[in-house]
Amino acid sequence: MSVKVLNVDIEKCTGCRTCETVCSLINTDRVQPSRSRIKVIRYEKRGEYHNYIPMVCQQCSTPLCMDVCPTNAISRDPVLGAMLVDEQACVGCRICNMACPVGGISIDPVSNVAFKCELCGGDPECVKYCDSGALSYVSLDRLDSSIKRNKSENISELFKLMQSLK
User: What is the DSSP letter of 131?
Assistant: First the structure.
């Protein structure tokens, strides 16, 4: 079985936040976007330009969140490759949150422990409800170089935008 990843196409995201709604409902039995494992961030430049970016754990090959966790509460699922948080072991110290380079891990406002996307057991609900096609769940080995090239250009533009907002 090849490793699959949640692929985010920021050019297709409309900012509807359906992914946040579905994620929170599936994971908490309530519509509570603050407890969603995916967060849609709106970037705006002087009120003219805006873009919506779904921020979600990228299941890094070198997971800094796991490396810095002082209680070893974060581990990798051997089948899916998803990073998992053991809520019983997590002390809510936020070190994982600070170490994550993509903002993919948060602290639950109710339980005060770390939480993140765990890929819904290999069948991500957010993908099913993303009408714009901004989210997909694809085999890592099928992502071709043109997709990677486009993503790098988008990320480069995003960093330029972020620098200009400072």
Answer: T
Q: Which helix (H) or strand (E) segment is 21 a member of?
A: helix 18-28
Count CA atoms within 13 Å of residue 9 on its CB side. Answer: 16
User: Do 110 and 98 share a structural domain?
Assistant: yes
Residues 32 and 79 in one domain: no
The alpha carbon torsion through 1, 134, 43, 39 (nearest 10 deg) reads -60
Question: Residue 95 is part of which domain span?
Answer: 59-116
Give the tens place of pLDDT for each residue, 108-164.
Answer: 999 999 999 999 999 999 999 999 999 999 887 776 554 666 777 878 887 787 778
What's the pTM value of the predicted model, to 2 decimals? 0.80
Same domain, 91 and 135: no
Q: How far apart are CA 33 and CA 6, in angstroms?
A: 19
CB 59 within 8 A of CB 49: no
Tell me the pLDDT tens digit for each residue of 23-48. 999 999 999 999 999 999 988 776 66
Number of Cβ within a 10 Å radius of residue 68:
15
